[in-house]
Each structure stands twice: as structure tokens, then as C-alpha cells.
Design a protein that fits this description.
- InterPro entries: Amidohydrolase, Aminobenzoyl-glu_utiliz_pB, Bact_exopeptidase_dim_dom, Peptidase_M20, Peptidase_M20/M20A_hydrolases, Peptidase_M20_dimer.
- This is Amidohydrolase.
- Pfam families: M20_dimer, Peptidase_M20.
- Keywords: Hydrolase, Signal.
- By secondary structure, this protein is an alpha/beta fold.
- The longest helix is centred in the last third of the chain and has 23 residues.
- A hairpin with an 8-residue loop joins strand 1 and strand 2.
- 42% of the residues lie in helices and 18% in strands.
Length: 472
């Protein structure tokens, strides 16, 4: 009888322990509709960088209602915030983005359908990012509370990832100084925890000011600011032949005049420059600015340069990425409903040469270490604190980022499922990190080795204040 009673007690204790260890997943399963509704609301708002007032407020209110202490307007950014729960260490940060992209709109349908009343859309799926990360943070809070595990979970509301470098200002302000580990994810057309670094980048607006005049009646009295822009672009395009192979340079003329018969006295061009190494970005940037100064001198115009943003490359941590890869494989991928399958099939027909097949959203892609040719302000977080991320299939397989197909999926349950899977992966990975000191120690040791003992942080955007008006 004593053995039977002991066995029943051990079974009961095991059942309680299992329930506690799955508290984060139980919360996510029970609150999927909240995650989906949050993602849809952010999709509807579609607010661009540093103008995400309603998006930021929604996430802050949700986290406050869940028991988090919220600090708003951090790093001199009105829409940036930090929400915290718990006490002491380890301190784990979950990053959340919520800005949309200007100039692209699409309804949440699988065929091209612009929304004429909108000037922006979630073509990078940051509505899913914000909703999924907030859900993950709340789920971790539920696990900490149910198990009595010491530690702090934080959600970082990080605005203006798309060209505004919101996280850089937050790093520069010291908001990650006491964080032990950081986590993030991003919507994609696939599920992967590959250890993928990114390109460092810097951007600026080059503003030329000249003298207006009648283009036919008094051309000799004019000095064309547009000529300054075009001369700069010509020289930079010639420069492309003489830069390291992995360099990326791209621009748009954001202002070029309004009437052909008026010599424009103001013109502006917006440049991005990228390379895998921050030091090379700095070196090439000197040549870019030299071309701008030469263009101004040659056209008799004046030049003003405003650095808009700058990001370091992501410093990968294989210890954490291998853990995340194993976590994703334990959870599994995404299975579409019949309705979602029909939506996906219609979207898929719009692709010329898709890189993935339908059905791959149910798979986890092979683990690898690679270079990605995008850039992100997560890079600056990753050199401040050991950081891990994942890509989750919030789009139909084969979808390119920054496309109308991405906007469409991000506003439907195809995207919402991705946000929920991301929340499960992040929260489960956080549970492992809180529970496994050896994992934490190994990740920290790798971080210190990769970053180097003589590292000193210097933001690529310099000491400028947040570019709060860069989308206006």
C-alpha cells in the first residue's frame, strides 16, 4: 500500500510539473483569438515608422492588462516602450516591431487589390511580429508565475525598424544594459532558425539647394538642385564598379521639382549603403559624401546631408540558434485549413518562379549559417547582448518580402498562424533559457568570443537624435 501511495504521489507531482512546464503553451492555445485580433488591428492601422501611435498604445495596453509594468516614450521616442514582469535575473528581452511600409497597399485577399484610402501596408509583416512577440512575453509571464521561477521577462516595443533604426536609439540609451539575452523573430515564407547574419547599413537624405528661374526665359540665372541630384547619382553609379563585391547601394529621388519650365531650387535624394562589415560601410560612405559634395560644387548648388539611420550586422550566436532550431522542430510547422489552402493556392499562382513549394509551411528548413542581404536594427541589439531569432512562415511559401502578397497574408489567418507559432517558439525557448544555466553560460561565452574583448559600441547613425520625421 505504501508503494502504491508513493507511486500515486509521484504521478500526481509529475502531472503538476508537466502542467506547469506547459503553462506558456496552454495560455497561447487558449488566447489564439487575442493574438489574431491584435495582429489584425495592427494590420488595419498600418502606421509607418515613428508614427505608430495606435499600434504602440494597443500593445502597451495589452501588456499592462496582463500584469506588466510599462514604461512609455523611452529613448526620446514617443512610440517606443518597455514592458516588464518579474524580479531579478535572468533578464530575457523579447523584441516587438509594429511599423508598416509606405507606398504599398493591399487588401487581405489573394488577388491584387489596392486599398485606395491607405498609403502604407504591412508588407514586412510587422503586425504579426508585434502581436506574436507580445503573446510570447505574456505566455512566459504565465510560466514564470505558475512555476515560481526567478527571472524577468521584458517586451521591448521597438518602432521604425524600416529605415528608422528605433532599436539603435534604445541600445544607445542603455535600455539593454541589464539584459542577459534577447529574442526576436520575423515573418517569412518559411520556418527556420538558421544562424543568419545581415548587412551593416547607413542611410541619408542628400538635399541640394539652388536658384529657381524660368527654364526658357532666364536659364542662365538658375542653378538646378535637380542637376545636383542627378550629378551625384551619375557619379555614385560609376562608383559601383569600384566597390567590394558584397556592397549594396540604392536610392530614390524624393523631391525633384514640380514643373519642367521652372529650374528647381530644391531637390532631395535618399540613399542606402550596405556591406557585411560596419567599417567598410564607414569607408564607402566617405566616398558617397565626396560624390555629393562634388556634385554640389559642379552644379553651383549647396548641399545638406542628414544621416537617417544606421545598423550594425547581426552577431549570430550558434549556441542559441541551435537551441531555437531544436525548439522549432519539437513544435512543428503550420497546417493550413481548407480555406487557408485555397487562399494559398491563389496567391501561389501569382508567382513566376517560387523558391518553395506549397506545403513547406509545415516543415522546418535545415539549419545553416549564412549571410542575408537585408539589414536590421536587431544587429545593434545583438552586439549589446546575446541574441537569437527565427523566421516563421507568416506568408504563403514562395512569397517575397515587401510585396503585395506579403501584405495580403499578414492580414489573414495564414499570417496569424505564423504569429502564434512564433509565440510558441519564443516562449518555449525562453523556458529553456531560464531553466538551463549551462545553456546560458555557453551562449554568453560564445558571445564574448565573437564580439571580442576590446569591443566598444559606436552607433552607425552617430549621435543624432531620433529621426522622428523621416517618414513625413
Amino acid at each position: 500500500m505504501q508503494k502504491l501511495a508513493l507511486g500515486l504521489l509521484l504521478t500526481a507531482l509529475s502531472t503538476v510539473a508537466t502542467a506547469q512546464n506547459s503553462a506558456h503553451l496552454d495560455w497561447l492555445n487558449a488566447n489564439y483569438e487575442q493574438t489574431a485580433q491584435t495582429a489584425r488591428s495592427l494590420w488595419e492601422f498600418a502606421e509607418v515608422g515613428y508614427q505608430e501611435t495606435r499600434s504602440s498604445e494597443l500593445l502597451q495596453n495589452q501588456l499592462a492588462a496582463a500584469g506588466f509594468k510599462v514604461e512609455s516614450g523611452v529613448a526620446d521616442i514617443p512610440t517606443a516602450f518597455v514592458a516588464s514582469y518579474g524580479d531579478g535575473g535572468p533578464v530575457i528581452a523579447i523584441l516587438g516591431e509594429f511599423d508598416a511600409l509606405p507606398g504599398i497597399t493591399q487588401d487581405s485577399v489573394p488577388t491584387r487589390s489596392l486599398i485606395e484610402t491607405k498609403a502604407a501596408g504591412h508588407a514586412c509583416g510587422h503586425n504579426l511580429f508585434g502581436a506574436g512577440s507580445a503573446a510570447a512575453a505574456i505566455a512566459v509571464k504565465e510560466w514564470l508565475a505558475s512555476t515560481g521561477t526567478p527571472g524577468t521577462i521584458r517586451f521591448y516595443g521597438t518602432p521604425a525598424e524600416e529605415g528608422g533604426s528605433g532599436k539603435v536609439y534604445m541600445v544607445r540609451a542603455g535600455l539593454f544594459d541589464d539584459v542577459d539575452f534577447a529574442m526576436h523573430w520575423h515573418p517569412s515564407d518559411r520556418n527556420s532558425a538558421a544562424a543568419r547574419t545581415t548587412l551593416a547599413n547607413r542611410s541619408a537624405k542628400f538635399r541640394f539647394r539652388g536658384v529657381s528661374a524660368h527654364a526658357a526665359g532666364a536659364p542662365e540665372r538658375g542653378r538646378s538642385a535637380l542637376d545636383g541630384v542627378e550629378a551625384m547619382n551619375y557619379m555614385v553609379n560609376m562608383m559601383r564598379e569600384h566597390v567590394p563585391q558584397q556592397t549594396r547601394i540604392h536610392y530614390v529621388i524624393t523631391s525633384g521639382g514640380n514643373a519642367p519650365n521652372v529650374v528647381p531650387d530644391y531637390a532631395e535624394v535618399f540613399y542606402y549603403l550596405r556591406h557585411p562589415e560596419a567599417k567598410t560601410v564607414r569607408s564607402l560612405w566617405e566616398r558617397l559624401e565626396a560624390a555629393a559634395r562634388g556634385a554640389a560644387q559642379g552644379t553651383g548648388t549647396n548641399l545638406e546631408v542628414e544621416i537617417i539611420h544606421g545598423n550594425h550586422p547581426v552577431l549570430v550566436n550558434e549556441t542559441l540558434h541551435k537551441m531555437m532550431d531544436a525548439t522549432l522542430r519539437d513544435i512543428g510547422g503550420i497546417e493550413y485549413s481548407d480555406e487557408e489552402q485555397r487562399f494559398a493556392e491563389t496567391i501561389y499562382e501569382s508567382f513566376d518562379d517560387p523558391s518553395l513549394s506549397l506545403g513547406s509551411q509545415g516543415e522546418i528548413q535545415p539549419y545553416s549559417v549564412s549571410l542575408g542581404y537585408g539589414s536590421t536594427d536587431v544587429g545593434d541589439v545583438s552586439i549589446a547582448v546575446p541574441t537569437v531569432g527565427a523566421s516563421i512562415a507568416g506568408y504563403v511559401p514562395g512569397t517575397a518580402g515587401h510585396s503585395w502578397q506579403a501584405v495580403a497574408a499578414a492580414g489573414t489567418s495564414v499570417g496569424f498562424q505564423g504569429a502564434n507559432l512564433a509565440a510558441k517558439a519564443l516562449s518555449s525557448a525562453a523556458v529553456k533559457m531560464y531553466s538551463d544555466k549551462a545553456l546560458r553560460d555557453a551562449a554568453r561565452a560564445e558571445f564574448e568570443e565573437r564580439r571580442g574583448g576590446d569591443f566598444e559600441y559606436e552607433a552607425l547613425l552617430g549621435d543624432r537624435e531620433p529621426a522622428l520625421n523621416y517618414r513625413k
